[in-house]
Amino acid sequence: MLPSWGVHCQEQVLTGHALVIGAGGLGSAALLYLASAGVGTITVVDHDVVELSNLQRQIAHTTARIGQRKVNSAQQAVREINPDVTVHAHVTRANSDNLPQWVAQSTVVLDCSDNFATRQAINAACVRSAKPLVWASALGLHGQLAVYDPRDASSPCYACVFPPSPPPPEVACATMGVWAPLVGIMGSAQAAEALRLLGGQSSACSDRLLLLDAQHMQWQELRTSRGHQCPVCGVTSLAIS
């Protein structure tokens, strides 16, 4: 029924493989929409367990699953929506040792993690395997979204825009707070961009960093492009328009 989304796109989604790093707020929304949209295979990675405080924003989990591993809870949520999805659940932290294999097996990678070191490791693995990375963050009332696609000569990588050193101070939703719908907005946007890529279409965000001020529901756009001296892909540049 969508003019820009035919049977061929949906067939590619069915045969696609989405790797989702993190089953918290961003990952919950992304996973549910990927499953409902018919993604054939989903791999989800998270080391944490479901806690009561998570339920304010992590909609894949329930009170009945408090104490369970988040990946197992998310796996159950996905299967309740679409039992035909093949779900691989890994109870571990994503790192430079295990990411290369998972990234290489995937079609698209969604970074739904919550710390800088993991984001850099995910990006490095995506650059090495030439796999598109859909990244988002959410904290307080502000969200960020970008797609980094090593297959696109004009697309920077995550390290181009956010250099690995010096690392910024670590902040977390548990200590800084987050507006519950914000992670849903950003996680859903990640799912949308991932579906474009899985369906064989170009991302709308491969040369942009989108910033959301959820308090005023205003988006700001930063144009990004490849330049020089990035320690991961060899280039860096960030221009604002």
Keywords:
alpha/beta; Rossmann fold; 241 residues; 8 strands; 8 helices; disordered C terminus; 19% strand; 8-stranded mixed beta sheet
Write the layout of secondary structure elements.
Layout: H1 7-15, E1 17-21, H2 25-36, E2 41-45, H3 70-81, E3 86-90, H4 99-105, E4 108-111, H5 116-129, E5 133-139, E6 142-148, H6 158-161, H7 173-176, H8 180-198, E7 208-213, E8 218-223
Parallel strand pairs: 1-2, 1-4, 2-3, 4-5
Antiparallel strand pairs: 5-6, 6-7, 7-8
Helix pairs in contact: 2-3, 2-8, 4-5
Order of helices and strands: HEHEHEHEHEEHHHEE
| CATH homologous superfamily (4th level) name | NAD(P)-binding Rossmann-like Domain
- Number of continuous helical runs: 8
Quote the CATH topology.
Rossmann fold
Q: How much helicity do the residues have?
A: 25-40%
Mind telling me the C-alpha Rg?
17 Å
According to DSSP, the number of beta strands is: 8
In the CATH hierarchy, the architecture is 3-Layer(aba) Sandwich
Largest sheet: 8 strands, mixed
The level-1 CATH class: Alpha Beta
Strand order of the largest sheet: 3-2-1-4-5-6-7-8
What proportion strand?
Answer: 15-25%
Which ranges are low-confidence, i.e. pLDDT below 50, for 5 or more consecutive residues?
236-241
Gap from first CA to last CA:
35 Å
